[in-house]
């Protein structure tokens, strides 16, 4: 009887990247991949042409002796060749290891050796960076240089285009891969200790890619032109390359040209509808577009922003001045990375509407989320109570590659290290990273909210709030602020600005006016460096209120 009731569906059909690759080859009629070139021109290929090159590349990998399960590194920007590697490596059964080019040298050495990469594919523009490190890599047998530039001192260096040319046209006989097999490896940026490897499976990437096509998520569709600014060497560029390929959307890749000017020109010329990038790049873009009336960003009706809290004012300014709608996303390398997405409820654009827009959004379908307090008790979703976010789901990590870390996992749930409240509608609001929280007189002060409110002041370009040890209150907030060029705004004026926006006891009694907020390898405010400067007594520009 139970046998009879077993579902009669093709449950063994594997959820693998080979399915997405086959769609790129056969179903994505007219879709294109556009890559920005150093002279400001673009190179275009159809998805069919890209698929043909993926087949050639798969043949090259076989000829280079890359076997199932081998890790193959990439050291590359966002461009078509990197996209080809995104498919050819996992579809051949090997593991795509995207090396984060912005990690410190010691971290890069650590991750290449920890992953035991067998070969590394490198953009010619990055050869000077990689050749210095090559002697410290113990398992890399060869390098493949992409583009026509110099191969430098890299040992056993081959040229990508020569190899593809020699491989010739024609179908490649891809091996069967198991959906649970590893497809890609990505290390966290390791703000504490060594970077940790997150090993994505074919199944997890397939499901996450489907997630990016859902309407309440990124809502990626065939009609989109997707600009992936977020690097392909960090958390799979938020899954945008795979999502675009699955949907049959155009993909626009800016290579290494991430400054406001080349991006603004690229957007004006190529008219992307969807873009993914961190708030700092959006803020640069806003300033540039404000100052250059010829820039037209209005095609961006669906801009995804995340990686750190997105200031409400940034979203408002983009919408009011440039007709760009920004939606906030939250996630981390361990969550593939998209876990929540903020599509606001329809309604009047009043304060409540903008309050929702400033939140990190609702969990995607298949992502389960709960808040847990210090004692391990679940916290209610009342919009006020805070706890650490724990998540589980089919694209959430269950462990780290070759590095057991029981602390991070709680009976099948991932401990994210992010503190949040969730309201009755299921909207998550991050108040802090656990290591950044400020506890003043036994009460939490949200550094994220203070930063958000400070950055709504027209003269404040950047704001990062850290905890300062205090004898009476244990900790008090110290606001590190970058003012716009020429602005002479005082600490008192900033406190006045905050006065009716935050609770009275949150009002800071100290500011540090700095030239720049230090950033991490992926462009986030690096509060660890600020805390270090504070401890050493080298945090300049401090002013008591
Ligand atoms: P790392 O390697 O530093 O963990 P990730 O890119 O994986 O780099 O960073 C994930 C972290 O970024 C999250 O845990 C969270 O603290 C922060 N983050 C991501 N998106 C948001 C967001 N929309 N709002 C606030 N914080 C965010």
Mean pLDDT: 94
How far the N terminus sits from the C terminus, by CA atoms, comes to: 76 Å
Main pleated-sheet profile: 9 strands, mixed
- What does the overall shape look like? globular
Number of strands: 27
| DSSP helical segment count | 15
The CATH architecture of one domain can be given as 3-Layer(aba) Sandwich
**CATH level 3 topology of one domain:** Rossmann fold
Rounded to the nearest angstrom, the radius of gyration is: 24 Å
Overall structural class, as computed from helix and strand content, comes to: alpha/beta
Explain what this protein looks like in three dimensions.
- The protein is α/β, with parallel strands linked by helices and 545 residues long.
- Among the domains are: 189 residues, ANL, N-terminal domain (Rossmann fold); 106 residues, GMP Synthetase, Chain A, domain 3.
- 28% of the residues lie in helices and 25% in strands.
- The chain has a 9-stranded mixed beta sheet with strand order 2-1-11-10-12-13-14-15-16, with helices on both faces. Strands 7-6-5-3-4-8-9 form a 7-stranded mixed beta sheet, with helices on both faces. Strands 17, 18, 19, 20 and 21 form a 5-stranded antiparallel beta sheet that branches.
- Strand 19 and strand 20 form a beta hairpin.
- Helix 2 crosses helix 6.
- It is globular, with a radius of gyration of 24 Å.
- The model has no long low-confidence stretch (mean pLDDT 94).
- Adenosine-5'-diphosphate binds next to strand 14, strand 20 and strand 21.
